[in-house]
Automatic annotation (TrEMBL):
<dbReference type="InterPro" id="IPR004305">
    <property type="entry name" value="Thiaminase-2/PQQC"/>
</dbReference>
<comment type="function">
    <text>Ring cyclization and eight-electron oxidation of 3a-(2-amino-2-carboxyethyl)-4,5-dioxo-4,5,6,7,8,9-hexahydroquinoline-7,9-dicarboxylic-acid to PQQ.</text>
</comment>
<feature type="domain" description="Thiaminase-2/PQQC">
    <location>
        <begin position="16"/>
        <end position="226"/>
    </location>
</feature>
<dbReference type="Pfam" id="PF03070">
    <property type="entry name" value="TENA_THI-4"/>
</dbReference>
<keyword id="KW-0560">Oxidoreductase</keyword>
<dbReference type="InterPro" id="IPR011845">
    <property type="entry name" value="PqqC"/>
</dbReference>
<comment type="pathway">
    <text>Cofactor biosynthesis; pyrroloquinoline quinone biosynthesis.</text>
</comment>
<dbReference type="InterPro" id="IPR039068">
    <property type="entry name" value="PqqC-like"/>
</dbReference>
<protein>
    <recommendedName>
        <fullName>Pyrroloquinoline-quinone synthase</fullName>
        <ecNumber>1.3.3.11</ecNumber>
    </recommendedName>
</protein>
<keyword id="KW-0884">PQQ biosynthesis</keyword>
<comment type="similarity">
    <text>Belongs to the PqqC family.</text>
</comment>
<dbReference type="InterPro" id="IPR016084">
    <property type="entry name" value="Haem_Oase-like_multi-hlx"/>
</dbReference>
<dbReference type="GO" id="GO:0033732">
    <property type="term" value="F:pyrroloquinoline-quinone synthase activity"/>
</dbReference>
């Protein structure tokens, strides 16, 4: 794909290369994502997905706070802080983390258990922690570029929500309310991050670093679904300390 490792790409070629990375490596292609959206998972397997993803959700404002602290101007901080508000909410508005808890409530998991982080898979924790450490340790440009997976999330969210609503009787529009605002927020955030990267990647090395950051982030998402697939598709492979079907259930309506 590389013309030469030293030649600078035009902004439009860099954007095309980034979009190609998403088309070929984003988690919309993951087998567990396909099982989820095609209605081929049990309620317990959907619970495992919701439980583990809470750890990702709850760390998003942590990683955005790290980026915020590294931004060098009022204008950039003003832009970025909106992401933290979206997830942490305010006195008057529910944030994404609270809405994710509504989702885990909706699938019948005990919220204290979910919020405790107990029972999540090591693979989930390692992947999410790697994302937080990446934005702390790499350049600001790489940290911002690692959020570019959000260019592709409106599409996967649409397909996943539609599939889940169609196939699972325990999923309602209300359970999935977390996702109502995400496509608009993701478009706003990823447009900003993309423009930032196109403008600031002013050498071929920086362009390569931006592409590598997006590849890394695709791996963060992919590894989380790998962990779920490994642990919950074959019950024999569930690790000893991981959540097990039936555990931390809130009262199910009498069946
Ligand atoms: O449902 C999804 O498939 C999906 C994907 C992603 C992503 O691409 O990282 C995010 C989200 N959702 C999401 O809800 C979210 O808040 C979010 C923040 C970020 C980020 O890297 O800053 N990605 C994502």
């Amino acid at each position: 794909m590389n013309k030469s490792r030293t030649e600078m790409l035009s902004a439009s070629d860099l954007e095309a290369a980034l979009r190609h990375i998403g088309e070929t490596r984003y988690h919309h292609l993951h087998p567990f994502q396909l099982l989820l959206q095609e209605g081929r998972l049990s309620r317990a397997q959907v619970q495992a997905w919701a439980l583990n993803r809470y750890y990702y959700q709850s760390n998003i404002p942590v990683k955005d706070s790290i980026i915020l602290a590294r931004l060098g101007s009022v204008e950039l901080r003003r832009e970025w802080r909106q992401r933290i508000l979206d997830h942490d909410g305010s006195e008057t508005e529910r944030g994404g983390i609270e809405k994710w808890i509504a989702l885990t409530d909706g699938v019948g998991l005990d919220r204290d258990y979910v919020m405790s982080g107990k029972g999540i898979l090591a693979g989930t924790r390692f992947a999410v922690d790697a994302y937080v450490h990446f934005v702390r340790d790499r350049t600001l440009l790489e940290a911002i570029a690692s959020s570019l997976t959000e260019l592709f999330s409106p599409n996967v969210i649409g397909v996943r929500n539609k599939g889940m609503l169609a196939h699972y009787d325990f999923i309602s529009q209300e359970t999935l309310a977390y996702f109502d605002k995400r496509p608009v927020q993701a478009k706003r955030d990823s447009d900003f991050a993309l423009n930032y990267c196109l403008e600031h990647a002013d050498t071929r090395e920086k362009q390569d670093a931006v592409m590598d950051a997006l590849r890394f982030k695709c791996q963060v998402l992919w590894a989380q679904l790998d962990a779920l697939h490994h642990a919950y598709v074959d019950p024999a492979l569930t690790p000893p300390d991981a959540w097990r079907p039936g555990e931390a259930e809130t009262g199910r309506e009498a069946a």
